[in-house]
Amino acid sequence: MKAAALEQYTVQDILEYRGNSTLFYSINENNTIESALALMYAHDIVSLPVFGTDSTQKFIDIVSVYDLRDYIMRAPELEKEVEFQLLSGRPSGISTVLQDTVAQVVRSRKHASQEVSADMRLEELIRLFTTYKQHRVLVTKIPTHTSMQKVPDIGRKRGDSIDSGCSSERHSDAAVCGLTQYDVVRFIQHHNHQLGSLLDSPALAIAQTHPSLRQAAPQHMPHITIRDTALRALATLSNTHASALPVVDYDGRLVTEIAGTSLRALTSSNIGLLGKPVLAFMFNLHLPVTRPYIVHENFTLSQIMAGLLQMNCRRAWLVDREDRPIAVISLTDVLYHFL
After folding, report:
1. What is the 3-state secondary structure (H, E, C) of the chain?
2. What's the CA gap between 41 and 148, in Å, rounded?
3. Distance between CA atoms of 283 and 122, rounded to whole angstroms?
4. Which of 168, 162, 212 minimizes the C-alpha distance to 45?
5. 226-239, pLDDT tens digit by residue?
6. pTM for the whole structure
7. What value, to the nearest 5°, has the Cα angle with vertex 190 and ends 16 and 330?
8. Spans of the chain, pLDDT less than 50
9. pLDDT tens, 306-337?
């Protein structure tokens, strides 16, 4: 690692710093996609643990809003239902993809959630996050003495999900803990006094690792214009495996961002809104249309990390002098810089 001071730490150190709050929300495999989205939307969470429906109620896996997004966008009847509702103003009465079960989503994925042990070194965890594009992992074999008390978290205001806590299997003492990239960035920021000049790296150097960076032609970066429909936006998100895309005006200037989390407000009766322009879609679903976190070339890694944590963001948009997005600096990019 570039930061030798971080080589001494393990996953258990991160868990003990973060603390492990009790998990309040979960779903079973026979719940519908619509009910999973509604639960995520009501409590502002992005993933849920899935339990079986038999007598053991065994833990199965984690399902995220991005898993649900990709499954929904593959549905062959989606465009037909969107068009019908957009033109008629009412549901067609035919069962939609939102009535499929969570079990169908879990089975459709290529990879299950990655499991790691509490004694895994921090370097290995960061490499797992950055090389294999994992955003969260399951931590197993947690020592019984590991603290289960939630430490104060001033900056973070997300709801309790598998991302931010631990859940026990319903009829056993086995704990299932979620650990995210956000948790690791918080842990590293807590030890920033050990990192020296590494934190002075400029934003452009961090973003250079991102394949979307095109200094001479920023229009090549995947983006959505204000005239594009929400359906096209979500299809682009799914096809590019991105968590969010910049929404730009007619001059290419950044207006807001569209994220996969916007799907959480979707129901069988409002799915037609996907056919509207992206801003109209967000307004009709009462989703916040806010100015995203932007940085410029002269921002340092230290400033970027502090901003991400203070604003509770998963990404920062690097823009030029005309406010046109050049690249996105994600939590993955930040972590990669420490390898």
Report:
1. CCCHHHHHCEHHHHHHHHCCEECCCCEECCCEHHHHHHHHHHHCCCEEEEECCCCCCCEEEEEEHHHHHHHHHCCCCHHHHHHHHHHHCCCCCCCCHHHCEHHHHHHHCCCCCCEEECCCEHHHHHHHHHHCCCCEEEEECCCCCCCCCCCCCCCCCCCCCHHHEEEECCCCCCEEEEEEHHHHHHHHHHCHHHCHHHHHCEHHHHHCCCCCCCCCCHHHCCCEECCCEHHHHHHHHHHHCCCEEEEECCCCCEEEEEEHHHHHHCCCCCHHHHHCEHHHHHHHCCCCCCCCCEECCCCEHHHHHHHHHHCCCCEEEEECCCCCEEEEEEHHHHHHCCC
2. 26
3. 41
4. 162
5. 999 999 999 999 99
6. 0.83
7. 100
8. 148-162, 170-173, 210-219
9. 999 999 888 999 999 999 998 899 898 899 98
**Sequence letter at residue 78:** L
Convert 243-295 into a string of H (helix), E (strand) and C (coil).
Answer: CEEEEECCCCCEEEEEEHHHHHHCCCCCHHHHHCEHHHHHHHCCCCCCCCCEE
Place of tokens 């068009």: 83
What local confidence, expressed as pLDDT, does residue 47 receive?
A: 84
- The pLDDT, as a whole number, for residue 98 is 97
CB distance 258 to 245 below 8 Å:
yes
Residue type, 238: S
